[in-house]
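Dissemination and training. As part of the outreach component of the grant, students in the summer workshop were shown how a complex can be specified as a set of sequence lines and then modelled as a single object. The example used during the hands-on session is reproduced here so that future cohorts can follow it. Participants entered these lines:
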Amino acid sequence: MINLVLFIIAVSLGVNLLTKDSLNLTGKSIYSWDQNLDQAVLKAEAKCVFNNQEEQFSLSPEQCCYQLLKQYACVGQGGELVSAAASLDLGFSSISETLLGIKCYTAEDSEQYFTLNKEMLDYCWSEGYDVKLE
Amino acid sequence: MSSWNKIWSKSLKNSWMKNWVEYGPTFFLIAVVLSLSVLTFIPEKSEFYVEEPNNILFDSETNTLDLSSLTLKQKLAQMVITYGKESNAEIYQNMLIGGVFIDARPSKSSFKRSIQKFKDKAVVPFFITLDLEGCLNPLENFYNHPALKDISTQMDAHVIGAETGYILKELGFNLNFAPVVDLEDKIMGCRSFIGTPEEIASKASSYISGLQEQGIMAVAKHYPGKTLDSYDSHQTVVQAVISADDLVPFREAMSKGVSAVMVSHLIVSGEVDSSAKPSVISGELIKRIKQEFSGLIITDEIGMLGLVSYYPPHPEVYTQLFTDLFSAGNDLILNFDRSPERINGMIEIVERAVREGKISEERIDNSVRKILTAKGIRVVG
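and obtained this result:
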């Protein structure tokens, strides 16, 4: 019985090691097309809104990542209903029904800030952008 | 006595063998689990390391650098501006990266501290850059900067440009990716000046002179215009028709001595034609800029707007993109990837392209000369 348990643990550790190694692409092969499959899924679900006082603008994932990189910090805010964006027709038709749980800003009390969902954040990280989540 | 010894030794041997048969596999599995655990939980050490360069012939007294002392890889690194994460300062100094981009900080002292880390021990000084373009303000915790749309006169534009230049200089910056001179910002609604193309051109030029009078290089962006005007969430690299009006602020900025122009990812036709390619990889378009402008030509951030999606899906797509970006004639490539290893990967791809004759080394040298001269270095060799 103990041998069976040990065998299972050994196999699990071995599989874990192999997976870990396969993610460590280095040097010339680091830019590969393969990683784009998961990114496409994240990108489809990513949502990002720029809030400027009373105005709201929906941003594409690529534009959003670049802007998020420049922010001081991002914080979880428990899911805020972005209702004012209902009138916008800039690509994400269902923003008004979307809980965007993360806020990113250059200063905590800034009137200009971004709200986004977790998929947006994950997408930016997967694209190599250093978005800082507190 | 000897018979007792034989019996004892036989019984010991039997017992050892019996134990081994019984517990051997368990001991073996325990050993395997322990070894794999150690391997799994050892903290990963980054294999990527660059040694401090000792080949650079740089006379700090006369501020003169011998270009021929740089390796091809170091010259290509000079053409890259990347994301300035403090923990990467040493590796970027050793790689001879051209510049770093600094994001928002909570105070003046934290900006100064971060910037100093990049300045200390840098063999060749970095471009220390930021994106203070009005609207979003990375200095917001201690400095108010109006949105460009709220700057109403040419005089105000000059004063604000000079004030901004003063504070950026104090913090340690030398290059600001501003101002936006696109005629309209439909994406965020606040980054463009308001007015006729001529009014926008004069406000932008005044803002640029204000910045540059304080020793901060300004960047007119995003050539050839309409970059913040075009939006299609289903299509990442979009197309636009450029009018003569779009070019008015760029021409004004270039003729008044702006330090640099940033080229967009749009595929353009009309007054400027990018030959059905994104502007930033269009050699024809960049050649046209060079005919009327001798300053630096900078790419927009290359991770943006799905530039890579312009190419058909292919394992070598990044090789093609990086080669095209450098061969098109851009002087500086903005790649804000947080990984020094991937930045190095890009440089190695282009290094290979030069060695294979796809890009001439002379073309690389011309850009590096411009970059070093803009940094105030006298270039020989």
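Chain B is about 45% helix and 10% strand. Students were then asked to discuss how this feature might be tested experimentally.
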